[in-house]
Amino acid sequence: MKYSTLIVILGVMTLSIAVFSTNADGAGLVWRAINKSGSSLFDIANVAFTSCSNGQVLQWQTSNSTWICASSTTGKTETNSINGGTARLLKSNSTTEDVFKSLTQGSGISITNGTDTVTIASSITQGYTKINNVDTTGGTASILATNVTATSTQATFKTITPGTGITITNGTKTVTINANLPAWLESATRKTADYTATTTDGTVIVDTRISNRTITLPTAASASGQIITITRNDTQFSRNWLMIDASGTERIENSLNLNITVNGGSAILQSNGTSWSVLNKLEQGPAIYGYSVTKGTTANRWVVPQAVTNTALGTLAAQTAAIQAYPFNLPYTTTFDRAEIDVSTLLAGSTCRVGIYTSDHNGLPFKLVSGTDVGTISGAATGRVGNSFTTPVTLDPGLYYTAVQCSTAATLVLRAVPVAAQANILGYSNGAAPTTTAGFTLTRAYAAFPTNYGPATGYLGAVSQHAVFLRAVG
């Protein structure tokens, strides 16, 4: 019995050794003890790995279901497979891992997603401002410095530099913002003698207390766009004149010159390249009888410029082969459309002409006001007769002359302004018994009025003046 029991025990042990020996690895690790669900590394805590180096760790290899020794990754920060297909942060020499790096001066970070790349630079270029992707497809204007050429869709903004400015271009349309102001805009000068203005003059202040003065404008072509203000500023009272004269045959509106007759008066003019326009004229003259009439053809009120008192008109025989010029002061800008005479005693076949002349800086008859020669007026019937101007004529305040001439004298008699009704414009004659001067006479054959009155040397003395009626319409 004892021997049989011993034999059974030895048989079981022999069988167990045979089974376990077929499932153990070379190190004596029993494979079945750990190759089961729920096993952990504690199951192999006593297994020695003589091939691992100090600091290495075990890594599981799915390719061959084995454990290997590998270096530790402690101290690195890595991101693998960032959120599927979103942009990945890569260093330039990396292919398999996503590594975050610090922003480095001069290099920055590149963010790449497929073929699109954005670089975050760590340096900023000072003093240079760019705008990229300017909307050029819709026709929006590009703002460029004049010395910069547009590259692709880039526009560069620069500070306005004197003498250069900025040009704004949109297709064929160009606007230049210039940093320079025209010289005349910053110029003011004072003159006590005749003066020819230049293209750099903006304001000319003139003192006429010693004598009449003439300011000649630059040529309109050389001063296109220029605005010039000419003002009279006498340091003491005077009766002198300030005349603004256009260059050569150029015009100031429809006249060759413009007069400023009172202290404090001024005119603002601008060149249009061919002539000068009067933007504003300020001159407050004396209130003279007859200029406060209601204007217009319906009112049909008339001015006899030389008649300054409420005195009845007289008569005066016509003069032949001579142009009689009678002075008058025009205190306000006035527009006239028609000129007439009043025939007191008719003469069959006779005609007369009337016109208006400006004055020069000496107060003498000077230039015929364009459009004021109304042509021949018949003296074959009594009463008011005359003609209209080709277009209404506007006269600025100043000294003018009405001019009268007739084809024959004989018995033709016209209405006239008596001496008692006249203003003493030309002063008194010299001598112990001074007399007033009614105007001037110029010997000349009967014809259309000349542009220039000519040398006015024939003083008329204290005589009546042929009345010229002007209809005021504005």
Mean pLDDT figure: 75
- Count of discrete alpha- or pi-helical segments spanning 4 or more residues: 1
Structural class: mainly beta
Assign the CATH architecture of the domain at 302-472.
Sandwich
Strand content: 35-45%
C-alpha end-to-end distance = 162 Å
Give the proportion of residues in helices.
under 10%
Features:
mainly beta; Jelly Rolls; 35 strands; seven-stranded antiparallel beta sheet; 474 residues
Brief synopsis:
This protein has 474 residues and is mainly beta. It contains one helix and 35 strands.
Give an overview in words.
The chain is mostly beta strands and 474 residues long. Among the domains are: 184-282, Jelly Rolls, CATH 2.60.120; 302-472, Jelly Rolls (Sandwich). 4% of the residues lie in helices and 35% in strands. The N and C termini lie far apart (162 Å). The relative contact order is 0.09.
